[in-house]
Specification:
With 130 residues, this protein is mainly α. 87% of the residues lie in helices and 0% in strands.
C-alpha cells in the first residue's frame, strides 16, 4: 500500500515539474503554437517539424483511439454488450470526434450544445456524492 501512495506522489511531483516547465516556456515565448514553438526556439526547425508531423500522425490519433475504446469499454460493460457492439461503438465515437474536428471547431453553437448537455451529468454526479 505504501508503494501505491509513493507512485501517486512521484507522479504528482513529475506532473508538477512538467507544468512548471511549460509555464516557464510559455512566459518566455508568448507565441501561439505551444510545444511546437518551444521546440523550434530550443532545437531548431528540423526537430519542431518532426514533432509536428509525429503529433499529427501518431500521438493525437493514438490518444483519440484509446479514449474511444475506453469509453466503449465502459458503456459495453454497463449494457452487457457483445464485442461487435463494443467495436461499433468505439468506431462511432472516433468517427464523431473526427467529424466534429473537421467541421468548424470554433462554432459557438456546438460549444453551447455540449455545455448544456454536460450540465445534467455534473448535477447527477454531485447528487450521487451527497
Amino acid at each position: 500500500m505504501l508503494l501505491f501512495f509513493f507512485a501517486w506522489l512521484l507522479g504528482g511531483v513529475m506532473s508538477l515539474c512538467g507544468a512548471l516547465v511549460a509555464a516557464e516556456f510559455s512566459a518566455r515565448y508568448p507565441h501561439t503554437g505551444g510545444l511546437y514553438v518551444y521546440l523550434e526556439k530550443i532545437y531548431g526547425n528540423k526537430i519542431s517539424f518532426l514533432f509536428g508531423w509525429m503529433n499529427t500522425l501518431i500521438y493525437t490519433p493514438a490518444i483519440l483511439s484509446a479514449l474511444s475504446v475506453l469509453f466503449a469499454d465502459q458503456v459495453s460493460s454497463m449494457l452487457n454488450a457483445n464485442q461487435m457492439m463494443h467495436d461499433i461503438l468505439a468506431l462511432s465515437i472516433l468517427t464523431a470526434i473526427v467529424i466534429i474536428n473537421f467541421s468548424n471547431p470554433t462554432d459557438s453553437i456546438f460549444s453551447i450544445l455540449v455545455t448544456i448537455l454536460g450540465l445534467p451529468v455534473y448535477v447527477i454526479f454531485v447528487k450521487k456524492k451527497n
